[in-house]
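Hey, I was hoping to borrow your eyes for a little while. I've been puzzling over a protein and I'd love to understand its fold better. The fold is given in discrete form, as structure tokens running alongside the sequence. I'd be grateful if you could look everything over and explain what you see. No rush at all, and the record is pasted right below.
>
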Amino acid sequence: MDSGPPLRSFEASAATAGSVVHAALQLWLERESWTGSEPLTALRSALKAAELSLDTRLMALPSGGRALQSLRSIATHLSELLVVEGARSQDLSVEVLLVSRVDRFWGVPDLVVEATRTLIVDFKTGLQTAQASEAAQRQLMFYAHLLRSQTGRAADELVVLSPARADRVRCDEKEVELYIERLRSLRETSSRNAAPEQGLCTYCR
């Protein structure tokens, strides 16, 4: 029997610089801190709360200094994005489980914004190569499918936020469906039962 996807928790595993950054951004968003006059000041408060929750200090972790710079840059891009979209805290879904029960696909996007438009946002704290950026866009298309399956709402835009920039791409429903069809086909191929043969299987006689 399929038990379904596990619940996501930052406390479930040892803290990394990336998990601290994500936890700080989550708290910062939930507090609607991007709307204030000094969003980065509020970000410091969210970071301290995240460190306390995870019982660690970002600067004590490997790559902590780089992660701190990434946190500030991503928060700056995100603040600008949310203000332009006219978003409020009630328009945001942070780290919410999305499930397609028909496909039995599931995922947890970093952020879904449902204000004047619907955006799916992914945070990338590391350097983004062209290959990594393409992989992130495919991940966002997967989330767009889950959002449509669970809520009936289509995403208008897919956004990858990295320290260097905000990559924004219009969500093409046809491209999303083509990608999901590929995933279905791959899963069907990989889930086919193996055909044991004598000489390959010890238990075949």
User: Anything to note?
Assistant: The longest strand covers residues 118-123. The mean pLDDT is 85. DSSP finds five helices and seven strands in the chain. Residues 198 and 205 are 6 Å apart (CA to CA).
